[in-house]
Amino acid sequence: MKNVFYSLLVIMLISSCQKDINVYIKKEPGSITGQILPLGINATVELYQGTLIDQVGTDAQGYFYFGEVKPGVYSLRAKAPKYGTQEIFKVQVSDGEGYDIGVIELNKLPLPLVYIYPFDGAKNVKRGYDKKIDIKLKFNRQMDIESVEQAFSINPPIENLNIISYPPSSSNNVSHSFYFKGDFKLETQYTITIDTTAQTISGKALEFTYTGTFETEPFRVTGFLSSSSFDRGNSPVYFYFNSKVNTTTFIENLTIEPPIEITYENVIYERMRISPSLCWIPDTTITFHISKDLQETDGAYLEQDTSFSIITPPLRVIDTKPYNNQHFVPVNQNIEITMNYLVDEGTISDAVSITPTVNFDISTQNSYGRTQIVLSPDSLSPDTKYTVSIDTTLKDYYGGNLKKKYSFNFVTD
To answer: What are 377-399's pLDDT values in tens digits?
Structure first.
């Protein structure tokens, strides 16, 4: 009984004390700051929490400040005349603390357009090998495709305009991209316009008409490629351009020093391939000069005179049959010596010898700018080591001598 009495007394005391325990939590306001660039555009920043709460302008340095902001989650919209709006979401203001947005840079793209390529003022915009340039527009909202196609224009007009749309791929990805492809000319300034008839699928129009310009690259040589070895005496060299050229026009504007006759040329896309009618001159620096008077198929002139040089290797042996130190060679086998260039056939008989001495006939085969010397011995002795030598009296087609004596051995059956 006494325990019950004490329990009731404790409960009454606790109840009486609770009336005097009151907790008051007061939330202190915070602030939001940031900077808008570029300077001097008279930007305005709006603060939203569902609806518009407040708006401020920027100072001379582009800074803005919202004070007395209640704790919570907000969004901002920064805008300026002739500049696109920038939206910042999920700005979390905590109790009594400041939130620094940092730098917000406005550009001249009207929402919901957020990206364009080529950008306004772009120079030297490159074309593909098929004259194509991909003009890319990216929106941060799903757009009405037909309205965007109608809103887009380019001047001067381009041929073979093709438009490809890439709508959002999921509910989490709201970006909508468009590619405008066509045939562009070199060294030409184009103006792109997207007017306010472009709108989202919900009917919201572009903020204002966008106009931008870009300039395509000039006609130029983009590369030069040659064989590193030139073991094939008429190995081709390749000239690469950023536009197609007429074969005849190219040859008319090509100078080669020292002069050499060119008999093969071919245009493949923007590539020109040339080879000598016979072979390159061995052990020589050969310079190719392309005049700026060269025109591509649409009429643009080459940006500047362009030169390339190659250094050809000297005359040398690149293959023999039998190969050096070969054994068990049939006694009736011909001996073949392949040179990397054409040779002066009148110098072969004095330059070539076989030891032990045997009589042999000489014939030649010329292909790919090389000479293959064929020695046909009357008879070779069995189980005998032979040495074939070519001395420096052997001359190439243009009169240059073999730089170093060459010899190889073989052993017959």
So the answer is: 998 999 999 999 999 999 999 99
CB atoms within 10 A of CB 183: 15
- The CATH number assigned to the domain with range 317-412 reads 2.60.40.1220
> How far is the C-alpha of 263 from the C-alpha of 146, rounded, in Å?
54
Residue 11: which H helix or E strand, with range? helix 2-18
In degrees and rounded to multiples of 5, residue 14 shows phi and psi of -65, -40
Q: Assign 3-state DSSP to the chain and report helix, strand, coil percentages, each to 5.
A: 10, 50, 40
Q: What is the pLDDT of residues 220-253, one digit of tens each?
A: 999 999 887 777 899 999 999 999 998 889 999 9
Task: Say which CATH class 30-105 falls into.
Answer: mainly beta
Is the CATH number 2.60.40.3710 carried by domain 221-311?
yes
In the numeric block, the tokens 């991909």 are attached to 134
Going by C-alpha positions, the residue among 117, 46, 43, 36 that lies closest to residue 77 is: 46
Question: Could you tell me the pTM of the whole model?
Answer: 0.73
First to last CA, the chain: 131
Task: Kindly state the tokens that stand for 401.
Answer: 């001598």
pLDDT of 136-148, one tens digit each?
999 999 999 999 9
